[in-house]
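Batch job 17 of 40 flagged for manual review because the log was empty.
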Amino acid sequence: MSDVYDLHIDTDVTVQLSDCCREDAQAVFDVLDRVYQLEDMEPPGPRTAEGPATTVWVATFDTAGGRREDVGPTHLSALVGATLTGGYHAVDEVERVLATGFDVQSLQSVSGDQETEARLLLASR
């Protein structure tokens, strides 16, 4: 394994948002996009979809890169469930950034050998 690989391992965090409207999902992703580099995002469906609507939005952020802008309190219209998956340090870092923009309640943490998953509930400050 090279030193470069060691430095960048486990920097990506996948963020899944559930049980929220499109605008709240975008508000959370915008906060993270001001700090980290957006790696991948599944675009939300159309605003006026007929039938069952998507209730989960997914984006992946690289905690090693980005703009590192300051984050202030951000408004949400309702509570948002968030699941963060990635390396231990990267998930902790993303959780700290979310805590600067939202009230964060930790619901559960599941740890594996190389990766962790944190389940959070986000609310407006």
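Reviewer: the log was empty due to a logging misconfiguration, but the result itself is present. Confidence is low (pLDDT under 50) at residues 1-6. Unflagging and moving on to job 18.
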